[in-house]
Amino acid sequence: MTDWKTLDKDLDRIGALEEAALFIARPLVAPGLALVFIVLAMVVAALVTGVSHSGLVVVAAAAVGAYMALNIGANDVANNMGPAVGSKALSMGWALAIAAVFETLGAVLAGGEVVATISAGIVAPGAVADPQVFVWLMMAALVAAAVWINLATLLGAPVSTTHSVVGGVAGAGVAAAGFAAVNWPQLGAIAASWMISPLLAGLLAALILAFIKARIMDAPDVLAAARRWVPVLIGVMAGTFGTYLAMQALSHVWVVDPRAAAAFGMLAGLAGWAGAGPLVRQQAAGMANRRRSLRRLFALPLVLSAALLSFAHGANDVANVVGPLAAIVKTASSGDVATAVRIPVWVMGIGAIGISVGLILFGPKLIRLVGSEITRLNEVRAYCVALAAAVTVIVASWLGLPVSTTHTAVGAVFGVGFYREWANARQDRSPATGGAIPPEERRRRKLVRRSHVVTVVAAWVVTVPAAGALAATVFLVLRGLAT
After folding, report:
1. How far is 417 from 201, CA to CA, in rounded Å?
2. In a domain, 13, yes or no
3. C-alpha distances in Å from residue 197, one per residue of 143, 320, 403, 409, 466
4. Confidence class for position 23, pLDDT limits 50, 70, 90
5. What residues make up the domain containing 395?
6. What is the pLDDT of residues 249-291, one digit of tens each?
7. Is residue 111 within 8 Å of residue 352, measured between CB atoms?
8. In 3D, which of 366, 430, 9 has the Cα closest to residue 161?
């Protein structure tokens, strides 16, 4: 019996040791799989280009491009799925699956065969006519943008991948050809969008929520008001996303002028309103006549909006990976520097698949932050966020302002939270509730976490200069190693 007891104790120790080893190893699974994807990208690049000096450059660029794609998936896609997950309209698993599918479809079907090699015209192509210098510049920009986005993800800050690439290109351009090589007015317009787009999106989200509260939530008959107005709101969302997809995501497939995009959006809006009416009436049948019942009516349009945002994001932001990578591939193989390049299939595959892999492996952290840690969202508030973000992007596109989907989505989340704080404070000060409440109690009732506001805004402010400084450093290192 003593021997059996000793054996049982030994087996318990071994089992505890195995559990401890699994617990320690679990955080290493995602980085390990990410490393496997980067190695596979390098292998594909080597098979396509062969073993030569230019081939080695392309292999190194493929590794950096794969790393960049992983980071875009980890950071940027949270803005599309965060509100849907935070409102509990989607589980995390379903959100990751839907986003991965629609991000890939957007990149492959509407990502564009030809993209600009210098992001947003930041650096004049004539300033970097030397092919070798051009390759170093694009490589440095990719490395810097990827490292900065990775750092921001670790800090829990959703940042703009477009601004990171722009900052990287500008910094490397200054290191390569001096300050005169950079288009500073264009960079200034991008800097202005840091303030304009989140403020506009936040204001729109607050106005939409105020409209829903006045017309539906505070109505004497909540369900009757919902049957009247919810189909209209769904039609507005369908029209907005129809216009957005026509202007942004589908513009790579055929040329769409603003009037045609608006007409397409109106048709989509009318179809959405007509189709939503019977569905809303059917859902509302048997519901309790109270505010909480409204949430179920907004769940389906919220899920559809998240999928459409993911499709549009994949169509547009995949260029942040494949543009610089394709430019390096073309320049290294032909020795010519061009302002635009055709995207090879394998390069597009690295960008599209890498974004989805990065989302699945590392995306949940920022999805939770955007969806539930800044302020509490339900289906109605999340609908306001999605609609405000889409409208802001459309308005900015018409005005020619370069905006970030990250800034607009997070700005809309802030707007919803701060509006709720204002509405609650206004209600607390009304005579019906006994007048003003003590300052200590007012501080306790804050609905937006100030620590996240400070972290996110600080990350936005330093994105372009931080990526630029990193890119300049990487460029100087690459040039030093080559010489």
Report:
1. 12
2. no
3. 27, 20, 6, 9, 21
4. very low
5. 37-482
6. 566 666 667 788 888 889 999 999 999 899 888 888 878 888 8
7. yes
8. 366
